[in-house]
Amino acid sequence: MKHFISTRELDKAEAISLLDATHDMAVARATKESSKTGLQGMTIANVFFEDSTRTRLSFEVAARALGADVITFTSAGSSVSKGESLKDTLKTLEAMGADAIVLRHAQSGSAETVVRSGWVGSHIVNAGDGTHEHPTQALLDAYTVRCRLLGSTSQGRDLTGVSVVIAGDVLHSRVARSNLWLLSTLGATVSVAAPISLQPRGLAGMGVQTFSTLDDALDSDPQVVMTLRVQRERMSSGFFPNESEYSRFWGMTAPRLAKLGDHAIVMHPGPMNRGLEISSSVADSARSTVTEQVTNGVAARMAVLQRIMGGNR
Amino acid sequence: MTTIVIRGARQMGGETADIVVVDGLISGEGQSTVTADRVIDASGLIALPGLVDLHTHLREPGGESSETVLTGSRAAAAGGYTAVHAMANTNPVADNAAVVERVLDLGVAAGYVTVRPVGAVTQNLDGLQLADIGAMAASRARVSVFSDDGRCVADALLMRRALEYVSTFGGVVAQHAQDPSLTVGSQMNEGVVSTELGLAGWPAVAEEAIIARDVLLAEAVGARLHVCHVSTAGAVDVLRWAKRRGITVTAEATPHHLLLTEDLARGYSPLFKVNPPLRTAEDVEAVRLGLADGTIDIVATDHAPHSVDAKEGTWADAAFGMVGLESALVVMTKALVETGLMNWQDIARVASTTPAQIGGVPGYDKPLAVGSVANITLFDPTPSTPWTADRLAGRSVNSPFQNLTLPGRVISTIFHGKETVRDGLVVAAEELMR
Fold first, then answer.
1. Of A106, A299, B50, B375, which sits with the fewest C-beta atoms within 10 Å of its C-beta?
2. Pick from B410, B364, B368: nearest CA to B385
3. Reported ipTM exceeds the 0.90 cut
């Protein structure tokens, strides 16, 4: 594996292998055992054309934990996000010695375009491309699900029999897409709960069951509820009327948490809008995996960087 | 006196006969005994009337890095065209007599095809106030097709006024049917593939709703309407209904919408980014059937050249559009003739006679008839070869057909009695000057 662009292209064996590698990294981190064996002497460039402090920091921590040097380029301005500038920026960073480029970009397909174009020879990691994919988020989410539901027996296993509800703005969510593909590959059943205005076309054709409201979805007794961040500008563009309606029909609240089975978990990729898509009592409850997801994110990104770059040594 | 004898071509795919061209006119068929300046062995070739494109972007003035009137004229000749309609979205916009006369003069100077300037409907294509429609109609360019192509005349009242005012001068409004509010940020056809790729969807209804509105407006004010680049099955249905109702509407389909589908967006290659977007296989089939049954009147290329830079970045950054003049006839052969939907007479109708009629281009009403202006295309339908960039003759190479195996080749194009393409190659500009 030279690049990590998409969860859609992962087969089941690769996906399980990455989850297992994530586990090894997580154990190494938790026991303070040094894992700085992997990528010493290598340079990883974090190239963020779009603000995402937590993803950027997570990749930085992961790279440093593996012994790599990190250089960071951030530019949220639209004037430099044009194709030519993307090309020139990446060529410049490669010329400075970047062995891998971790790319966050506001446009769907940007990471795939960089790989296809051959502009640079570096490894490319997709850290989120527009409304398309966020594959390391999906990996850390799947790992979190596997840890929580399967516990100490989880190594080597897939997610057969696990049912997951993704709730919220699936239309604009790269997290939802990457999760949908990875979880399905791992054998989980994925359904979606969202207003129809925020459901993309063709979900049924992708094997996804759709529910109009979160209550309808919870009646199916899922083991995992994955809430998505709501962008407030969706209200002004008419996808839904206001926050109270959203919260009423699609918010993960304490009464809804009570409807879930004993071991069911609630996830959120962060940052959360407390009181909108998730209530504080749910977010801070023992069922919430929000902070574990952040911890696991470092391990998952270590696993990915090690996987694509480790063979180069 | 210059004489060309074309030996043994099948006239629009039918009877084999010789064609004699004398001083720019088709003189006597079937009597090739004159002393010819040039004899073309056309056995096995199909003779068609010179093709007429109602929808071409020549980019000049303002976009010379991607095409000029001269380079676009060469691309047209290579594709078997003898007349093109140059769209108005240049810089400056062709919204006044000076620009359309300039484009007309550049076309005459280039000498490969008749260049008919299209005038903008609204000033600067802004959709707010009518352009100098009368002045353009009365200019030396004799503009009769008006279009804001690239943008839709979205405001219903302004569209009504445009239909009325353009009909005052005997012209036609060619509408780019795209409701702007339904397509904010849209990147590709809305459906399973847009969901998968995370690209903002471009719903079919954005095209269909405007066409439905406009045919009713055209009926209400008694004006002619032409609909550009029909791409959806629903749009074909609306047009079929309108024609049955007796509304004076004509419509065009592009070669790419007759062959390519949205699946090509997978991989995010901007070569497949176009407005309107590539649609589904069902839409392609409906557009083909619409052409075959006359619901759609013509094939028009929407030849839209773009520089390599404009087509190499991310999908959202890249420009909309594809070059299409050089490949149009081979794509029609693949999509319409080889499928049995059309014969060569039908091709002559949808790619020459009818577009000339809609655009008011004289000399195309009696294809290949004695006494007509000698605009002739000789096409070899047999070789099936990979379509490669070396078949392109304009300044830009953004062809979506590259590496597809497509049938046929334009061997010869004759414009006003002069060869502009000989043995499959575009004739040098210096030779045309002579």
1. A106
2. B410
3. yes
